[in-house]
Give the backbone structure.
Amino acid sequence: MRANEASAVGSMRAINTAVVAYSVNYPDQGFPPQLAFLGGASPCAASSVNACLLDDVLAQGRKNGYAFVLPGDGAVPSVSFTLTGTPQVVGSSGQRMFCLDQSGIIHFDPSGAGCNDASPVLD
């Protein structure tokens, strides 16, 4: 579980970096409307719907026992985002749920049930 949680934190950081890069590369779109827009099958030709900023496995939302969700805010250009990383099986594939927003600060919930800005901050 610890290895999966460590991997999930690394994935959260990678996704955050990709989201910011996407907003710089596609300012008319802002932040991506969904996680899949950050990936792209190899060989990848970058566009606003296949930005080639993440490996396609992570861009599909599942990696090492965690599920990642990046719902868009519905605005164009998008000015905010939230990202969650949830254990696929709480207590087995991981215990803590992770989340972050455009601030780039990763929060966690030790129960795996949900987190928000009031949750403890991951150092």
